[in-house]
Amino acid sequence: MDNPVHILIVDDDPEISTLLAEYLEKNGYRATTAGDGKAMWKALDETRIDLIVLDLNLPGEDGLTLCRNLRVHSSIPVVMLTARGEPVDRILGLEMGADDYLPKPFEPRELFARIRSVLRRTHALPPNLQSPDAQQMLFAGWTMDFTARHLINPDGVVVALSGAEFRLLKVFLDHANRVLSRDQLLNFTQGRDADPFDRSIDLQISRLRQKLGEDARSPQIIKTVRNEGYVLATVVAKEK
């Protein structure tokens, strides 16, 4: 492989980092390790990273803070690790922009499967999420740029999107003014049906609304349709 997928493992436990790095490299990936946030930012400045495996409990800035700060300017996929098993930690991780979540302890092959799944969703979008006929979509004063994979707000300021946010907004733009159920949104973005307790779509929509500057109590762009789902309630125009 000329350009193997490069995974950055951010964990302050050297045994876990070494184990994961060796496992990933045996499976054809390139792996770099970092023990804290400072080392993470240094690695990101020095080389191309395709995905970050990020531990929640780190010295200094914790994983949630690092993920939130990363999302300000980058859409690099993040799989978050934590020793905690409480659902609230998973929810917080998703709210900060993580693409997936895995509690410790775990099997390396399970993490490897999660990494492959996130990369597949991020880099190999199914045909219904591709935009061969448009480089940009315009809506409510906003511009979605498919080449750069980011948003531009009405004032011309670039707004970075996570991979999950990008896929979700693309679905809404492709189905503007149509009500989409949670099942449909999960199927379009992740290729699976909704679990009754899976709040990932709701959390991603909440994050999208924040990025769009929406009033959480009365959103005007992505609206909630009671007992049915969500709808992008605005005119969408395509530009080549």
Description:
This protein is an alpha/beta fold and 240 residues long. Helices cover 37% and strands 21% of the residues. It has 8 helices and 12 strands. The chain has helices spanning 14-26, 37-46, 63-70, 87-95, 108-123, 163-174, 182-190, 200-211; strands at 6-10, 30-34, 51-55, 78-82, 100-103, 136-139, 142-145, 150-152, 158-160, 222-225, 229-232, 236-239. It has a 5-stranded parallel beta sheet with strand order 2-1-3-4-5, sandwiched between helices. Strands 9-8-7-6-12 form a 5-stranded antiparallel beta sheet, with helices on one face. Helix 6 packs across helix 8 (200-211). The longest helix has 16 residues, at 108-123. It is globular and about 50 Å long. Residues 124-132 have low confidence and may be disordered.
Rounded to the nearest angstrom, the radius of gyration is 18 Å
Structural class of the helix and strand makeup?
alpha/beta
Give the oligomeric state.
single chain
SSE series = EHEHEHEHEHEEEEHHHEEE
Write the layout of secondary structure elements.
Blueprint: E1 6-10, H1 14-26, E2 30-34, H2 37-46, E3 51-55, H3 63-70, E4 78-82, H4 87-95, E5 100-103, H5 108-123, E6 136-139, E7 142-145, E8 150-152, E9 158-160, H6 163-174, H7 182-190, H8 200-211, E10 222-225, E11 229-232, E12 236-239
Parallel strand pairs: 1-2, 1-3, 3-4, 4-5
Antiparallel strand pairs: 6-7, 6-12, 7-8, 8-9, 10-11
Helix pairs in contact: 6-8
Briefly say what this structure is.
The chain is α/β, with parallel strands linked by helices and 240 residues long. 37% of the residues lie in helices and 21% in strands.
